[in-house]
Design brief:
This protein is an alpha/beta fold and 391 residues long. Helix content is 40%, strand content 13%.
Length: 391
């Protein structure tokens, strides 16, 4: 069976050069990076070299980077770290209604501890309006956390404008850039944010590694307590292979991201255009242009997304009915519902996310298969038959 992977927003295949970079750490480079003897010194250098590579990609200082186990841990460290810091001036935070569960559920956890959280709405195209954040800022607001780009729709948020609003009000700004990093340019020197989350497995690195950029001078309370690692901001022996892999992945992106993004956008646009030309009754979920170059979220009216997903899987096509972190849920996507989508249409939504390695032949195969599956499922759908009669 042919296999076509169109779920790069969930995770990405490991880059061949990343595999080569981590090979020594499976054998002779086995030391603990905190050890001062010969077995640790080379490993420590590899960790710091990777930190340098990642800093060069984002344009930040190496010591502003905190290595964590994942984007989720980085979000927790940013939000709880600011909430728990000594002498914070209040207990109010602002986020959006379409954040990743790592942000939403962290905020709900803090609400149970007496913090107040405002969930800024999004417009029908899935974008947070900066003025809604401006209106929500109060005297005791300590943090604004708005994602850089949405994981389901690919919508790119106006984080620079929101960051300027937060900065003018003297409020710290965090952005979850897990989906944006490697797909759109991010310049830490120009971005008015204080904390930024990124992850390794979204950029052709390994799973189990993430990072948080914390602007110099930002005080955070540690969430994971232990040793002195990461300058006391995150205890625990570093995931050396993950860090080296992430450093190599970002190094490769620094060299080839422009061309990779151009090719991915071309394939995404080809795929999207063909679907809308060949299949009637489709709804694009998200902004038509302010969107990641690899992502398209479409509602196939009169069919269920889960049925589509299973049928596509049977012909070797991997995509998603929403965030990988909410898979298994039969509910309509909370992201689409927050956007004001029709609940029935939301049940028929699929996310296709392209990436490195996809080809024209794969896109053509996916379009043919999707058209055939939609025709089959609609032929069995009472909703579709009723609609056809009404026409």
């Amino acid at each position: 069976m042919r296999k076509v992977y169109l779920d790069h927003n969930a995770t990405t295949p490991v880059h061949p050069e990343v595999k080569g970079a981590i090979a020594p750490f499976l054998s002779e480079m086995f030391g603990n990076p905190s050890s001062i003897h010969w077995a640790g010194r080379g490993v420590r250098k590899a960790v710091e070299d990777a930190r340098q590579e990642i800093a060069a990609f984002f344009g930040c200082q190496p010591l502003e980077i905190v290595f964590t186990s994942s984007g989720t841990e980085s979000d927790n460290l940013a939000i709880k770290g600011i909430a728990y810091r000594k002498g914070n001036a209040g207990k109010h935070m602002i986020t959006s209604a379409v954040e990743h569960p790592a942000v939403i559920n962290t905020c709900k956890f803090l609400e149970a501890q007496g913090y107040r959280v405002t969930y800024a709405p999004v417009n029908r195209q899935g974008i947070v309006e900066p003025d809604s954040v401006r209106r929500a800022i109060a005297k005791d607001t300590i943090l604004v956390s708005i994602m850089h780009a949405n994981n389901e729709t690919g919508c790119i948020m106006p984080v620079a404008e929101i960051g300027r609003i937060a900065r003018e009000a003297g409020v710290l700004m965090h952005t979850d850039a897990v989906q944006a990093a490697g797909k759109i340019p991010i310049d830490w020197k120009e971005l008015p944010a204080d904390l930024l989350t990124f992850s390794g497995h979204k950029v052709n690195g390994l799973k189990g590694i993430g990072g948080l950029i914390a602007r110099k001078g930002i005080e955070m309370e540690a969430v994971l307590h232990g040793g002195h690692q990461e300058r006391g901001r995150r205890g625990g022996t570093e995931n050396v292979m993950g860090i080296v892999a992430m450093g190599k992945a970002f190094s490769l992106l620094r060299e080839g991201m422009t061309e990779e993004v151009r090719e991915t956008r071309r394939l995404r646009d080809k795929f999207e255009k063909a679907l809308f030309e060949r299949i009637p009754d489709l709804v694009l979920n998200g902004h038509p242009t302010e969107r990641l170059p690899n992502t398209v979220n479409i509602s196939f009216r009169f069919v269920e997304g889960e049925a589509m997903l299973l049928n596509l899987d049977m012909v070797g096509i991997a995509c998603s009915s929403g965030s990988a972190c909410t898979s298994g849920s039969l509910e309509a996507s909370p992201i689409l519902m927050a956007m004001g989508a029709d609940p029935v249409d939301a049940q028929g939504a699929l996310r296709f996310s392209l990436g490195r390695g996809n080809t024209d032949e794969e896109i053509e195969y996916a379009v043919d298969a999707t058209e055939a599956i939609v025709d089959k499922l609609r032929a069995m759908s009472p909703l579709f038959r009723r609609e056809a009669k009404a026409r």
